[in-house]
Amino acid sequence: MLRLPWFEHRAPRSVAEAAQILAGEGPQAMLIAGGTDLLPNMKRRHQAPKVLVSLRQVDELKTLNGTFGAGLTLSEIARSEKSPAALRQAALQVATPHLRNMGTLGGNLCLDTRCNYYNQSYEWRKAIDFCLKKDGSTCWVATASKRCVAVSSTDTAPALIALNARIKLVSARGAREIPVAALYQNDGIEYLSRTPDEILTDVSVPSGWKSTYWKLRRRGSFDFPILGVAAALRFSSSGEIEEARIALGAVASRPFLVEKAGEFLKGKSLSDEVIAHAAELVANRAKPMDNTDMDLYWRKEVADDFAGYALRELRGDDMRATRQRIARSPLA
Question: In which domain, by residue range, is 300 found?
Answer without folding.
Answer: 210-327
